[in-house]
Structure formats: C-alpha cells, structure tokens
Amino acid sequence: MRIGLLTEGGYPYVSGDAGLWCDRLVRGLGQHTFDIYALSRTERQEDQGWIQLPPQVGRVRTAPLWTAHDDGVVHGRRARRRFSEAYGELLAAVCGGPRAASPGVPGAHEVPGDPADSVGAEADRFASALYGLAELARDEGGLVGALRSENAVRVLERACRAPGALRTARTARVPDLLTVAAHIERALRPLSLDWYEDDALGSADLCHAAAGGAAALPGLLARHFLGVPLLVTEYGVHLRAHYLAAATLEEAPAVRALLAAFHGRLATEVYRAAVLVTPGNAHARRWQERCGADRAKLRTVHPGMEAARFADVGEGVRGSRCADPDTLVWVGRVEPAKDLMSLLHSFAEIRRAEPRTRLRIVGAPAEDPDAAAYLAHCKALAAQLFPDEAEGVHAVGDNPVSFEEIGGPDIPSLAEAYACGALVVLSSVVEGFPVSLVEAMLCGRATVSTDVGAVVEVIGGTGLVVPPRNPRALAEACVALLRDPERRERLGAAARARALELFTVEQNITAFHGIYLEIVSHSPVRRPVVDDEGEPLPFGVPAEAHVPGRWTETRFMTACRPRWAEGAPVRATLPPSTPVPVSAGEGA
After folding, report:
1. Phi/psi at 153 (nearest 5 deg)?
2. How many CB atoms are closer than 10 A to CB 120?
3. Other CB atoms within 10 Å distance of the CB of residue 447
4. Angle at 583 between CA 579 and CA 584, to 5 degrees
5. Which pLDDT does position 259 carry in this prediction?
C-alpha cells in the first residue's frame, strides 16, 4: 500500500523531532511505499539537509512553516466575504463567543439554549470554519495574503470583543492581537499547499501523521477533500508541549489564553477526524482523552529502541562490564526540565552515606539557547558542593562529579555511558516517554527515577521510583541500591527482560503494520479498478494484497469506455413460452 507520512520539524531532515522512529518505521516496512510530506520549522533545519532515505520512499514534498512568501493572490469581493465569514466563525469558536450573524440565514444569532454553547457544537463550529477556509484556499489559490491582512486582525478583534467571549480575550490589546494573528497564520499555512490533489495525497491509501498540530493538518484536509483515512501518532502530545512552552514565554495572558484555545480546538478536531490515534504511553493517552479523543480510537504503541546496540552491555550485566560499582550515571540532554540541580543536592547526601560514590553526568546541552547557561550553572553548583578532593596530601584533587559527552575517549558510545556505572538515575520534573530509561533497561542497569510522565509505566516493578523535586528521597533510594549489589543485579535483569518484551523496534513495526492493514481493510473503495482492457475487475484488490509483498499490479479507471459498453444495446431474449409478437405486414 502507499502511505502518506506527514511530519513537522522532523523526518526526513537530519535534525528534528520523531526523525529516528519514522526512519525505523519506513525501513522496517519495506513492502509498502512511503510518500513523505514534511513541514520544516527553521531555515537552519533545511540547510542541514535530509538523512539518507531508503528505496521504499517514493517521493518527498516539503514546505516551510518558518516563512511564507506572499502568494500574490488577490481576492475579489465574494472571496473576501467568504474569508471574513469563515475566519470569523473559526475565531468565534476559539474565543467562545456567539455564532456570528450570517446574512440570509435565520437563527444565526445566539438565542437562549442554543447548542452552540455546548462543547460538541463549538467543535463542529471550529471544524466547519476550518474546512471552509481550506475550500476557499483551494478555490482561490491560497490564503497567505488574507491571513496576514488587516482584515484578519479586525476579525480577530471583533471575536475577542463579542459578548460571551473569554474574559481574558477581552483584555487583548493591539500588540496582543497582532501576536495571536501571526501565530494563527503560521499554524494555518498548510491550508495553502497544493498537496490535496489526486496525484498527491489523494494517491495514498492512508495518511499517517507523526504528530498532532500542524503535522496532522494536511491529513485533515486529505480526509475532507479526498476521503483518505487518517492515523495520528503522538509520542509527545502536541497540546501538552504547547502548554509547557507557553509557561516559559513572557506573553500577555490574553495571548496565552487565545493560543491555548486555538490549539485545543485543533487537537479536538484531529482526534475526532482520525480513524485511530496511537499514543506512545498511558500518560499521553490520558492527555488525549482529556483533550477530547474517543477512548475507542486510542491504541497504545510504545516507541521502539534498537536492542542490538545495547546487547553487549546488557548480556554482560553480571560480568565485568561495569567499570565502577560505586558510580552513578545520568544520561540525557542537559536542560532545566531534567532538574540536575536536585540531582546534585541529592548526590551531596549520597556522599555523606557512601563517600566513595561518584556521579558521571553524560550529555550535551539541548538546542534551546538557555540550556547552555543551565549547564554552566550546574557545573558551578557541582564545584561549590564538591571541592576537589584528594586521598592524601601528595595526591591530586579530583571532583566526584564529572560532566562528559559521548564520543570522547572514556565514553566512545552511548552503550558505554550506561556501562560505566552500577546505577542509572533519572531526576526529571517533566518527562514524556523516558528514552534514556529504556536504554538503561536494555543495558541491564537498575534505575532510580522520579515519578513523572510515563516513568512508572515504563519501569513496571524493575526499578525504584521517588517523587520529583525530593533530593532526600532520591538519595535514600540510591544508597539502598548501592549497598545491595544482588538486588541491583536482579532489578537490572528484570528491567532488560521487560524492555526486550515491550520496547523494541520489532514490536513497534509489527504493531503499525497491523494497524495499516486494519485501517485499509475498513476503508471504502475510492476508485474503481479495471483490467487491461478497461473492464471492471471483480475482486480487483484481492486478499493477497494485504500480505507483505508486491502481489498485484492494478490500473485505475480511465476515461475510455469499457469493451462491454461498445455498440448498440442488445435486445433481451424472451422465454420460449412467451408468444413472439408479429408486426403489421409480417407473415403475409
């Protein structure tokens, strides 16, 4: 089958989100053809280029979200009126205001008891307006200029000032309105793409969005215009990521409220339109249910890790693979959400109980510019808490905390990072799916983690879990395992067995292969299938087509007439018992 894989800021670019699991999925399902439709986030990402693509990738179409050139489309009076009505309805649904008046439509104004006040009616209202804008973009050739126009800002202002709008929205000033209008314009740029034709997304058997939000928007339009079923995978819930990012921005309350409402409405429509939604863990599943996803559509598919790269370390857990049984290891991206400050304070208590213990922090700053400053703060705190120590007056002092990166002489690979310690620690205060925790489990290492995100679901009973932002609890759990090597080994062996059962690439690929076949088997046939002579082909898509392999080659219906339709109609043959009528003049 042909899969339209929809991504935003990830695959097939070298850097970005979800690139690794998308590449593993595409390479693992070589019997299918993948068309990649990618939205890039930054110019730097485009300059870095793509990864090497496997042969099963049929074509790649890209579009930038970070910029949009004016399409040069000049809307006439009727088009401008259509835009104002549809965009006004969209923003009214976001702001929570009454239904806008439509000329010639009775009952368009809000009345007591109107179902537009309900959540379902507002979701319908948002969806209808969104698809109305998409149809306008398709008819007129784009909406870039209209979404950037002064008229768009005026429509937004009317929606914010309308009776019944969000109280916070009413406080929006002109700079706030401009910020919100620019953000919505960026989010709706996929409406103006030329991907929604029969020779583009229309040729796909299904669309698979690798995330929610902008990545899933082309899938919504392909479903609306072409009837292509949509599958949405979220290993990190897009709406949750927006909330977390908004909390760190210095934006006005009106801006945060309006953007949160917009992304919430969009997430609701994505979940409602998708045939299936596949969260990566129960934590993401609960978020999706809270955001309006139907529980019957949710099916958890855990991310897959390459177990082979950790096999040597994992299988040698009882041997000499561990360089130092008194060493704690932390692996990940250095950023505030990882709460390394609490880890360092916790390690100070561990050192009081076990003076020989060392802590190796392995990782690099995240791409966020604030992450480098955070790493510098962590190094300063470590120097303050742990001055260079020496075993004697003639020995060179050494700090028990080291900050290292993978690729150096001491840690040449990721597997060696986990192998150099007896215990792996996770101190995060915010976490989605803890990838580093699964990697430690595949290496057969016992773990001590904070209870955030999907940690408990991943760990099961194979590690210790403590509350976040509690250095004392983290220290006590680490000391307990450092003093009990047999328990560490039992937990490490159980952790590896659990990871091999639930979190491998093979189980991830097998799950998605079954989901693809299930969706396609329940989807209506959109195109008649004919043979080489143009005649309808019964059972044109046989059961063998759902078995891995290229079993059939079909040709779609063309404009030519089939052979059975050529010539004059043939008179039906009457039964023998029926008398044949004789015309006047015959038989004489």
Report:
1. -70, -40
2. 12
3. 28
4. 135
5. 93
Provide the 8-state DSSP code for 556.
E
Angle between helices 119-140 and 253-273 (to 10 degrees): 80
**Which residues are within 8 A (CB) of 234 and not within 5 positions of it... i.e. 6 or more apart?**
211, 212, 277, 278, 279, 280, 284, 288
pLDDT, position 389:
64
Reduced to 3 states, what is the DSSP secondary structure of residue 582? coil
Phi, psi of 554 (to 5 degrees): -115, 155
Residue-level pLDDT at 391: 54
Phi, psi angles (nearest 5°) of residue 159: -65, -35
- pLDDT, residue 515, reads 95
Give yes or no for a contact between 436 and 414, defined as CB atoms under 8 angstroms apart: no
**Structural contact between residues 206 and 228, judged by C-beta atoms closer than 8 angstroms:** yes
pLDDT for residue 123: 86
Could you tell me which of 398, 322, 395 has the C-alpha nearest to residue 356? 398
User: Across 427-584, where does the E strand assignment appear?
Assistant: 446-450, 464-466, 529-530, 555-556
Contact between residue 400 and residue 351 where contact means Cβ atoms under 8 Å apart? yes
394 contact partners, CB below 8 Å, separation of at least 6:
none
Using left for φ > 0, alpha for ψ between -120 and 50, and beta otherwise, residue 305 falls in beta
DSSP state of 398: B
Burial of 362 (0-12, 13-18, 19+ CB in 10 A): buried
**Block residue for tokens 């599958």:** 231
Question: From residue 171, how far is each of 157, 174, 185, 512 by CA, in Å?
Answer: 10, 10, 21, 46
pLDDT less than 50: residues of the chain: 98-117, 317-321, 393-395, 549-588
Residue 353 identity (one-letter amino acid): A
Question: Tens digit of pLDDT for each residue in 519-561?
Answer: 998 876 556 666 667 676 665 555 555 555 444 444 433 344 4
Give 446-457 as a DSSP string.
EEEEES-TTHHH
Residue 321 confidence (pLDDT): 46
Nearest to 190 by CA among 201, 176, 174, 204: 201
* Gap between the Cα atoms of 389 and 164, Å rounded: 66
What is the Rg, in whole angstroms, of the alpha carbon atoms belonging to the chain? Answer: 30
C-alpha span between 556 and 198 (Å, rounded): 12
Task: Pick the closest to residue 79 from 149, 163, 15, 153 (CA basis).
Answer: 149
Give me the phi and psi of 555, to 5 degrees please. -125, 135
For 34, the 3-state DSSP assignment is strand
Backbone angles phi, psi at 169, to 5 degrees: -65, -30
pLDDT digits (tens, 9 = 90+) for 128-185: 999 999 999 999 988 989 999 999 999 999 999 998 888 999 999 999 999 999 999 9
Token pair of 575 as six digits: 């039964």
238 contacts 10 by C-beta, under 8 angstroms: no
